[in-house]
Structures are given as C-alpha cells and as structure tokens.
C-alpha cells in the first residue's frame, strides 16, 4: 500500500513510529495545558508553586529520537499557507482543522508501525521456524484482519483530505468504520491475555530470534510487545481524538452529530474490549485463589461471573487488651490476610501456600472507622465491623496497616460509599482539585488505576506518603496512583474548562444514546491512494471549499 498521507508529516516516516508519535502528542497536550495556566518555563522542578503550598514534581523529559521535531500541523502545510485560508478562517475553525488533521496523521503513523509488526516480525522466516502454527496464531492473533481494517480506514481518511485542503469532517468516516469493520479490534484485544503468556513462555530459539529482531535498526529500539499492544492503544486513543473534536464542534451541527455517533461507537468497542479482557483475567484469578483457600466450617463458593478481586494483602489484627502499654508490644498483633472481592470479604490466615478462612462477610455489610484522631499509636489503625459475618452475628476487628496510605486504601476499598476528602465530579461541585499525568503508570494492585500521559483526573484522596486516588474525567474510572506521576492543575479557570468539556461529552453521549452509526451520508469508497502531495494543484480548487461545510 502506497501511503500518500505520510507525505503530509513533517518528520521522516520511517524514523517516527506511532509509539513515538503518540508520546510526543501527549507531551504536547501537557505543555499546552501548562501554557494555559501561564506557568513559567523557568520554574525549577520540585519548586513550590507560589500561594499553593504544593510542590510541583519534576517535569519529565521524553527521550525521543526525534525530540527536536514537532508534530505536523495542518496550518503548516504549504497548500494551506498558499491558499490564504489562515487569514480567512475564524480561529475556532483553524483549531478544528488541527484536531481533525491530527486524527488522520496519527492514523498514518499507526499504520506504519503495524506494517513493521507484520513485515518485520510476523513474516520473518527465522521467527516462524521457532514456533508451531498454533503458537504463531496465539502470538499474533487476528492482526492481519486488524491491518486490513486499518488500511481501509486510512484510505478513506486520505480520500477525504484529498477532496479539499479544508477538511469537511472525519467523524462520519470514523463512525462508518467503527460500525462496519472495527469489531476485529475486540477479538484481538481479548486474545492479548494469551499473547502475553505465549510470549513469556517462548522457547530458547524463539527468544534468540526475537532478541535479534528487536535489535534491528528498523524498530528503533522499541520492544516487540510495544508493537503487539498497538491495536488497543490505537482504539482508545482514537476515542480521545474524536472526543477532542466533539469538544470543539459547534452545537447543533452535522459535525457535532457525527462526532457524537463516532464517540458512541468507539466507546462501545473500548467497553467490550475492556470487559472481555477483565472477564478472562478475573476468572483465571478466581480459580487461582480458590485453589489456595481452606475453609474450617462453612465453605463459600468463590468462582462466579459476577465476582472479581478488588484488593488483597496482609494486615495486622489486634488481639488482647487494648491498653497503651500493650499497644507497644508486637505480640499484640497477629498477621491476617484479607481477600476483598466486589461482593465478599474473606479474613484468612496464611499457612505456607494455603490460606485458612477465619471469617467472611458480604461487602455490603462492612463498616470502617478511622482511629487516627485517637493518638499517634493508632495513626495506621482502623476498626473493621462486620455487621453480619458467616456465623450471622456482628463482629469487630481492629486492624493495623503498614502505612497511612495503605490504611486509607483499605478503608476506601472496604467501604466504597465512604466520603472521600474531595468530591467526585458527579457531585457537580463547582471546583475541586485536578491533576494531569506527566508519566504513564501501569497498575500494580487491583485498586490502582493505570494512567496515560496527559490524562486529567479529579482528585478524591491524597496521602502524606505519596499516593493519590482520582477519577479520570474522560471515562470516570477510579483508582490509586503515585503522586510522582502527576502535577496539580493550579488554575481555577483551566479546572472549570476541563469540567465543562467532560460534562459536554457526558451530555452529548446521553442525548444521542438512541442513535446508531451507519452508512447514511458517508462518502467513502475503496480505491488505490493517489500519488500526489498537498501543494499548488489544490490552491486552484478553493472556490466554495473556503466555506466550512457543517
């Protein structure tokens, strides 16, 4: 496939893969928000922001090989500059053109990385000889179907831009392909659980062949797994790009309607991807846990389609008299291991590789009480009340955790309706603390939240030892994350704008809930991309195209 659209990019396509493009784009989002806050670039990392009392974490520097180059902008195209459009169009329309142009150019970069996954890894004869056909299928899944869907999508985006340098819309094309072709993403993402297992369990010949392929200059030092996860990264990023267009679209226009439809379709695909992955991993986790449990009396069935693990770990159970003198004694505390599911709590005692179940209770019948205000000795201690345990009677446990943050995380997990320090966005509070992620983070525990660079989160809780709990604005997901990966948004105006944009997305999604995407009104077609460039030929075709078609 001859990717004409790659000629639009201001960087050398083979040198700027999607992984690098994506990180650079997110870094630019962060910098744009900093500029909106009028943050001085001369402020040193770790310095105190005036009047805030908050220490700003160090600004992370991306180690990109093309860090000196910026992403291509629509307004920098020679054809656009020669057309005079930049002096004719309102500033809002130029911003909209940039948002749509980013969706197209990032798709081209994504497809370039997919090509490397196919030609450099999937088709490599040395790698093929190290695995059986079934292993190859598990490892690469239906990546060829994903590539075909992505190729069709990119061709239609390319066709739209070739119609006019003034982009009319892209969300109608997104919606069409989401409905007709993007279901292949769901199968691929769900199979990633098997991909990871197969990759880790590869034989020696496979590992040697893979090491050689990863060291090849063509992949620019990127790992094989960074290529494997591209489809899910792209479908989630595509949803955010459409969301960005929706934020900028004028209300009650065709652009807004198409963006709403496209966003709904992508939201459903991402939801099915997440649910599929979670269902498989949760079931495997429940099976693994059940094998380690030993019930002394009444056995509780663990494996259920409606059950999943929220948090597990060891805490110290206080036993005996609760005097100040005995609190200093280590003998006062006995280790217990808690398994907290979404609808059940198990209190167990570890015995080798097994866990003896001491007590259990439904999650709805749990209550917690913080004892921090009763003295320093109880700073990391809290009361856990089981209103009705496995013996159908109330019982109370005094538990000590390893840190203040661990105590707060347990209390939030055990009693989810407990009031947090700061309010959720769903409470429609006019202003509340917000942070933006300056570093990606992969969750290490079930109660943690995986984040991406440039994510905006509403802050719900924070601890003195470096942890925060937040609610991501674009999808409402909650969880804990280390404070070192975020910086606080100081400007009240920027926080208010973030909330308005999130609320608009929510309203648009709800108002269009009954709508479905389809083929109507979409001008898409199969063809071979033309070998041409964005130059003078289009400047002679402006005519009516200088008016925005909404």
TrEMBL record:
Coiled-coil annotated residue ranges, if any: none
Residue ranges of domain DH in the record: 95-276
Any GO MF annotation of the entry: guanyl-nucleotide exchange factor activity
Every SH3 domain range: 430-491
CDD domains tied to this protein: PH_ephexin, RhoGEF
Region (Disordered): 505-550
Polar residues bias spans: 530-550
Alphabetical keyword list: Guanine-nucleotide releasing factor, SH3 domain
Protein name in the entry: Neuronal guanine nucleotide exchange factor
Gene: NGEF
